[in-house]
Amino acid sequence: MSGPVLELDRVSKSFGAFRAVSKVSVALEKGEILGLIGPNGAGKSTLLNLASGALHPTSGDIRYHGRSIAGAHPHALVHRGIARSFQITAIFPRLTVVENVRIALMARRGLCRDFLRPAGKMLKTEIATLLERVRMSDRAERYAGELAAGDRKRLEFAIALAGDPSVVLLDEPTAGMSGAERAVVVEVIMDLNAREGVSLLFTEHDIDMVFAIAQRIVVLHQGEKIADGAPTEVRASPRVQEVYLGE
Ligand code: ADP
Ligand code: MG
To answer: For the ABC transporter domain, which residue ranges apply (predicted)?
Structure first.
């Protein structure tokens, strides 16, 4: 099917009298890496929450493969191929990395009755593949609760990928990471995009990283979209420099 994979069409979100997102339109194309930037409080997380179904728009429409998903439940959207990572990770700290990924795969495949079975070798190949993709094969037997921040984020990535998504939404995927950990996340994102043609929409504090990997950048400021284009265009925009890069 042609046209954007995910389309936010003049979406607004108010919290009481406060309008956090105001008539923002964003179209995510198949296989695109789209970076979402803007100062603190600009509405980036709110926009991702609208895209993932965690929040419902006050007005406007959201379409996935051309069909409206405004009002759909996040679980339903995960099953239809929209995965997101949260700033707070939804992993089980007292289970190992392998067990966390196995549960994600089982949930995706509707194997919930098997949760209580001795897991043994179930889905071993699939788990190994996912851990390889996020460069965590060497940490497979570690307890999730004992992982460093960067490793936890990568586990979260593996859990998101277990759903075989066509769209991945990431809210500050490198928050709290060291330079080396960031480089691995960038590598994982690029690899995912190159190999699977997955569409990515992500927010990030690290502007250099966004300009380095995004094919297109959307800039929010006080809930409004002030720029949308190729990195070079966005960087050159006087409005963007004024409200954001010139801070
Ligand atoms: P960003 O991710 O760009 O830093 P957010 O989307 O988190 O910004 O927040 C945008 C604005 O909306 C902020 O002013 C924030 O305080 C406000 N906001 C976000 N979520 C809520 C909420 N649940 N209730 C009230 N205000 C909120
Ligand atoms: Mg945020």
So the answer is: 6-247
